[in-house]
UniProtKB/TrEMBL annotation:
The chain crosses the membrane at residues 44-62, 74-95, 116-145, 157-178, 190-209, 255-274. One of its GO terms (molecular function) is ABC-type transporter activity. GO terms for cellular component: ATP-binding cassette (ABC) transporter complex. This is Transport permease protein. It is a multi-pass membrane protein. It is found in: Cell membrane; Membrane. It comes from the Bacteria. PROSITE patterns: ABC_TM2 (PS51012). GO terms for biological process: response to antibiotic.
Amino acid sequence: MTTASRTLDSPATTVTGRRLGPATLALRQGRLELRQFLRSRESVVFTMAFPVVLLLIFASVFRDEIGGGVRFTQYFVTGMIASGLVAVGFQNLAIQIPGERDRGILKRLRGTPMPQWVYFAGKVIMVGVIALAETALLLGTATLFFDLQLPTTAAKWFTFGWVSLLGITACTLLGIAFSSLAQTGRGASATATPVALILQFISGVFIVFTQLPSWMQQVAALFPLKWMCQGLRSVFLPSSFAAQEPAGSFELGRVALVLSIWCVLGLVLCLTTFRWTTRRDG
């Protein structure tokens, strides 16, 4: 039995007629979404293994300092964590949801007794669990093989938490909204992947941000990935490195503001653009 059919057979009540609570419904749906994700080898490899492979390659090739006593690995891992959150939240959902819509899964879900919000709750739980695993995998790899210096203060770990939370929230909402652009499930990857790759190149993931052309920096500043990377740099890089940022500081207040705005914008786009059926179904 497929995960889709399992989902369709999961109404809001049990066989005894007892109505399930919201938390139970969400957790059940989240468990089903995780099973579906883990059964797809392509999704697991591309979403979780690919960022780790890139980290291993770049950190092995570029071992020099980029200035201020900061090694490239210490800088690069911040971009890879942010990029991993984009892959898990934005790219994964922007590809997965159109496939489910194209196969008629969403249309059938809409006709079941299960509340519609449960579907989205399941996606959020799946994204949250995978994001935690992805981040832990990247940090563990960088620490074991490349001597990554982890944060040593509670304040930096707190910053790491809220930047990651706002970032993954924005990416998840934008991934759900972006899923409505793909005409078919097959075209979803070709629609979402180039967007993610372009943002990585212009947001300081693969290249030190201040080495990019100024016009490229200004374009990147319009999108959340740049601010996610900048917020994470404040966690993993020394305070002295803030002087090498474009504004001469990590601008954590602006990081929080921009990411919050994208969260609100993503929610509005989800509410106004999400489609349960394909265009050919009306």
